[in-house]
What we know:
This protein is of the alpha/beta class. It is 25% helix and 27% strand. It contains 8 helices and 16 strands. It has helices at residues 15-23, 50-58, 71-79, 96-99, 122-128, 164-187, 220-229, 295-301; strands at 4-9, 27-32, 37-39, 45-47, 62-63, 84-88, 106-110, 118-119, 133-140, 150-157, 203-204, 236-242, 245-257, 272-274, 279-287, 293-294. The radius of gyration is 22 Å and the shape is elongated.
Amino acid sequence: xxxxxxxxxxxxxxxxxxxxxxxxxxxxxxxxxxxxxxxxxxxxxxxxxxxxxxxxxxxxxxxxxxxxxxxxxxxxxxxxxxxxxxxxxxxxxxxxxxxxxxxxxxxxxxxxxxxxxxxxxxxxxxxxxxxxxxxxxxxxxxxxxxxxxxxxxxxxxxxxxxxxxxxxxxxxxxxxxxxxxxxxxxxxxxxxxxxxxxxxxxxxxxxxxxxxxxxxxxxxxxxxxxxxxxxxxxxxxxxxxxxxxxxxxxxxxxxxxxxxxxxxxxxxxxxxxxxxxxxxxxxxxxxxxxxxxxxxxxxxxxxxxxxxxx
Length: 310
């Protein structure tokens, strides 16, 4: 028999999992997502989340509580009489009343190899730390932050030039298949659970805007990992004088390169920049309000002479 599932998610990352559960024949009785937020070109129009839009197309009822502090919200959740809740990047901490509000509990799709990178930004932090591997895990949720027992794991290699956006897309699809498999096993009462180790715990703190500026005084490996870990959003950046005034320029891709010099100085006509040790070549950039462009196209419109300090 198909499971009665409440799905809880918000960004594009969650959408393939919602679709996979529906296509697998489960009865998705409700979708919970973050409320519409101001957006659009002027930031004035209320924008429904990607999960909200996907659920409407699938004909699934959508609920958008600010939290679950009211008895009314908790009672409404319970009245769906669901077998299980599936959570993928929902964006709210769930109280115990919700964690225990279905027959089989809540299962979370998390984008790391737990217990490494518990928390809000596991994809970015894995790349920024230079990890060679990450993955998706399905775990049974409990009160602690990403501390629950793990059911299934799928590993993904991180190429040395892979960006957070590329890893996001790979994990998004991997996670959908993994959750589909997990729910099939749960349906057959055959889903294993393994308690997480307390060794190797790391927390993936939310990305702070204050840490997005590129520090070229760091070793080239760290600079490169910083750039790709923040690409495409929010984007690592440096400041460059353009038209007589300083402007921020985002770097969306880079590669490690040969060269040495004063940290932050331009070494050649290919945007090779000296770091604290070694160098990085900036290969894809974006001016404020502009479109992403390859370095050669950027330089045609914005010359950056050798010796310039970024």
